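Page 42, continued from yesterday. The earlier attempt failed because a stray header line got pasted into the input along with the sequence. Redoing it now with the clean sequence only.
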Amino acid sequence: MEKDGQQEKKKTQAVTRRKPRTVWVRNRLLRRNIFGQYHQLLTELHREDPQGYKNFLRITPALFHEMVEKVTPQLEKKRTFMREPCEVGLKLATTLRHLATGDSYVSLQYSFRVEESTICRFVPEVCKAIVQAYKREVLKCPKTVEEWKEVAKNFSSRWNYHNCLGAIDGKHVAIKKPANAGSVYFNYKDFHSVVLMAVVDAHYKFMYVDVGAEGGASDGGIWKACTLHQAIEDGRACIPAPHPLPNDDRPMPYHFIADDAFALRTWLIKPFSHRSQEKREMLFSYRLSRARRVVENAFGILAHR
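This time it went through. Structure tokens are written below.
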């Protein structure tokens, strides 16, 4: 009882010693509309240098304004008599700059004149709003037999590889080591990461993604835990029935393509692994690898963006 009383007394003393707030908003933040990058630099780039605008945010001015309109319902805050909330455009520009360059919140707070603690709060909110606004339009996984056949048609015409429903691979995204995580997120490339597992079509477009698996896990194991893998195994993915290849009469299954890290299935094919390949095996491995390269290219385009 005495110890509890002493602890309560210490807490009370700590509260009484706390310094009162002397500044509600720093003066430099009040001059955001005059000197901040959102109101000053982006305005100049929009007016004088559209290419520089795209290089700064990785998107065109037209797309930026479209994104502002789409995410405003989720991000707009109520105005109060005490202070003005941050504009939706300011939040979006700060988030896009952070995603494009990896710039720290500490650096962004001086360039955009927004307090670091505020940036910490709204960046995850903006990311979620972007996903909600664009996921049905940008990230659309085929759900019917006709849609899967259209994907296979594009692989046939563009890469001369037939009955292909998509290329599968994983991308390691570097992160800071989480507290008490041990080696769970430490990958074979000697850094901590989470894995972006993706299925890409013939035009480098992401059809399905699974994000957040630990970097220490294998690509094959991560893919087995994905919802798309489970749907295919259970027969719920509407995979088309086998169809003959051009100039042939034997039905061949529609399938995905991947590298050696994935397990072979009737609906997932990878190149021949042995080195002493016959000429026909070498040709098949070359064709498959050339078509599978689209997923590697898609990751490269995403990282560059």
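Notes: The radius of gyration is 26 Å.
Reminder to self: strip header lines before submitting.
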